[in-house]
Amino acid sequence: MRVGWQLDPAFARGAAARAFGSLDAVFALEGELVASDTMSEVLRLAIDGRRYYVKRYRRAAKNPLRRWLGRSRIRTEWENLRHFQAWGIPTAKVVAFGQERGVAGFSRGALVTAEIPHTTDLARMAATGDPRLADRRWVAHVSRQLATAARSMHSRRFAHNDLKWRNLLVDDGPQPTLFLIDCPSGEFWVPPFLEYRVVKDLACLDKVAKYHLSRTQRLRFYLDYAGRRRLAPADKQRIRRILAFFEGRE
C-alpha cells in the first residue's frame, strides 16, 4: 500500500495533530454524522473548542474505472479547494488530506477542513425566508463577490460543476464574506466544452435566484460577472442558454 498524507504545519501539535496526523487516525475518528452515501461520509467533530469536517471516501468515484485511472474524487476535492485558496477565493481551511492506493488502485482517502464559523449557506437562507435576502444592499454586496469568484474560475478555464446555493456560505458580519465550499466535481476544460460548463454553473445559480431575487438583481450579477456596463449580443445569447438550461428538468 502507498499512503500519501499531508497535515498543515499549523495543526502539527496538540490534540489536532493526534486526531489528524495520519490516514489511519482520521479513519478511526468518531463524530456527528452529517452526510453519507455509497462512496463517502462526512463527520463533524470538535477539538480544543474548534469544529472540523472530516470527509472519508472508500470508493474513488461513481465510475469504477476511476479506481485505477485519473484522479479520485477526494483528490479532486482537496486540489480544487487549494486552487480556490491560490486564486483568492474564500473557502474552507484545508487541515489535512491524503489517500491510500494499492495494487487494485484507490483504497481510501480523506479530507479534513476547519469549520468556517458563524456562517450559513444560501440555500438554507432561501428555504427559511431569511430577511437578508430582502436587503438590497446585502444582496448586492454578496452578489458582487459571487460574480468575482465565478469570473475568476471561468477565466482560468475551470468550472465548478456544482455551483449551487447550498455550496455558498456567508458569514453574519455587517459586510459579509462569501465562501465557496464542496467542489469534488470541478475540472479544467478547453473550448468548445468550456462554454457548456460555464452556462451550467451560471444556470445552477439562477435556478434558485429566479425565485428569490428580482430580474434587476439577476441582471446586475451577470453584468458584474461579465465585467460590462451593458449586455453585448454574445451575452444575450448566453443568457438565453442559461434560462433554458433546466427547462423540462425542474
Tally of structural domains: 2
What is the CATH class of the largest domain? Mainly Alpha
Shape: globular
- The fourth-level CATH homologous superfamily of the largest domain is Transferase(Phosphotransferase) domain 1
Uncertain stretches of 5 or more adjacent residues: none
Helix content: 25-40%
How many DSSP H or I helices? 8
Give the neighbour order of strands across the main sheet: 1-5-6-4-3-2
Distance between the termini: 45 Å
Query: Quick check: average pLDDT?
Result: 92
Largest sheet: 6 strands, antiparallel
CATH topology of the largest domain: Transferase(Phosphotransferase), domain 1
Description:
This protein has 250 residues and is an alpha+beta fold. The protein folds into two domains: 2-114, Phosphorylase Kinase, domain 1 (2-Layer Sandwich); 119-244, Orthogonal Bundle (Transferase(Phosphotransferase), domain 1). It has helices spanning 14-20, 23-27, 73-86, 122-128, 136-155, 193-212, 215-226, 233-244; strands spanning 2-7, 32-36, 40-47, 50-57, 94-102, 105-114, 119-121, 158-159, 168-171, 178-180, 187-188. Helix 5 packs parallel to helix 7 and helix 6 (193-212) crosses helix 8 (233-244). The longest helix is centred in the middle third of the chain and has 20 residues, at 136-155. It is globular. The mean pLDDT is 92.
